[in-house]
Amino acid sequence: MNTEPTIAENRSKWAHRCAWLLACATFPLIWVGGLVTTTDAGMAFRDWLTSDGYLMPFYPWFSSAGDKFVEHGHRLLGMTAGLLSIALVLVTWRTEPRSWVRKFSLVILAGVILQGVIGGMRVVLDQRTLALIHGCTGPLFFALCAAMVVFTSRWWQSVSVEVETDSRRKVLRLSILCVAMAYAQLVVGAVVRHSPYMLSETAGALFQSAVYLHVLLALLIVGHVLLLAWRCFRNRLQVAAGIGLVALVAVQLSLGLGTWLVKYGLPNWATTMFGEMAFVNREADFLQATIITSHVAVGSLIFVATLVIALRFARQLGLGVVFLSVSPSLMTEVAR
Ligand code: HEM
Ligand code: HEM
Fold first, then answer.
1. Does residue 299 have its Cβ closer than 6 Å to ligand 1?
2. Cα–Cα distance between 11 and 336 in angstroms, integer?
């Protein structure tokens, strides 16, 4: 009888746990980052790496309030993500047998540093455009963390490759298209969110085109995600993930409509029928801030969910498209 441990038994469970911890810490970080923007608390402090002159952990956070409480909370969560990324690198380099996974943990560490620096520069230079960029790179960091969870999972290392058929290849292509559309939607959403605060002459036109594009992309995403879920079902591949993604998009549409209503009220044609809404854009309204911020955070979650599905398809169908085009030898390693 063969008593050699299989790859799945040999894998580093600690790297997987650490990756989960980091991904789970990153979601609230994105949520609170979104809250910073929603409540316009981005410039609560004028300094960075310090907060009002205090080094990050020593700022009297519990006795602060309002904007400073929210913004420093985001900084503390960012610091936690940084520490967890360092732990991930240490654990991965000690326990993970695959060298490409070890290198990937370094990419995550570089990602968190870069994200922190962009956030800090947004404050130091008081730059709205940097806030927009920081809002778009945050979900990319979240995506790296989620990819690490997938790469270190037992499933990745033990799944048997399915027979490749035309229909299955189409599912993979469709899932990659969904990733691209979800990210494009996030960038356009960030323009909708930040352009009203920009001082340039083109800000108005930029806002208007971004709104139209955001609605158009929302329709395209709904169509493609429904198709993806149907194809998952027909091919008996990742059926639960497909259904979960449809549910997330349904929640996101309701949050998107809610966001529009609480920020901008009813469109002109509707006010003639229903009258003006009395509750639009109330300062510091907790429910309104929660709806808007949840729309931002669920947008990131949809992007990361589509990426996880695409990565798992690529693995399941033995088609490491990205790796294959970059380096066939790396592909052989990834297949482990
Ligand atoms: C990995 C670490 C971090 C992640 C993933 C992250 C993510 C985010 C996200 C998603 C937003 C929302 C942007 C939007 O709604 O458009 C945000 C806002 C913000 N973040 Fe971070 N952040 C991180 C670290 C930091 C750090 C270290 C700072 C240091 C000051 C910082 C400063 C800010 C500021 C000032 C805003 C508000 C920007 C505005 O005025 O709208 N972030 N962050
Ligand atoms: C699949 C559908 C959708 C996705 C994935 C999505 C995603 C997002 C994301 C990620 C953001 C924030 C970007 C950032 O700041 O970093 C955003 C902003 C926004 N979205 Fe959507 N969205 C969707 C549908 C909709 C719909 C149907 C509406 C309503 C008409 C809508 C209205 C808005 C508005 C008004 C903002 C700006 C919020 C603000 O100014 O604070 N979204 N969207």
1. no
2. 10
* First-residue to last-residue Cα distance in the chain: 23
- C-alpha span between 269 and 281 (Å, rounded): 19
Cα 90 to Cα 9: distance, rounded to the nearest angstrom: 21
Give yes or no for residue 122 CB within 6 A of ligand 1: yes
Which numbered ligand comes closest to the C-alpha of 250? 2
Is residue 61 in a domain?
yes
Counting ligands in written order, which one lies closest to the CA of residue 22? 1
* Residue at a domain's end among 107, 123, 158: 158
List the domain range (segments joined by +) for residue 323: 162-336
pLDDT digits (tens, 9 = 90+) for 123-180: 999 999 999 999 999 999 999 999 999 999 999 998 888 777 788 889 999 999 999 9
Beta-bridge mates of residue 51: 54
Ligand 1 touching residue 168 (CB < 6 A): no
Residues 44 and 172 in one domain: no
Are 15 and 97 in a shared domain? yes
- In degrees rounded to 5, what are phi and psi of residue 201? -70, -25
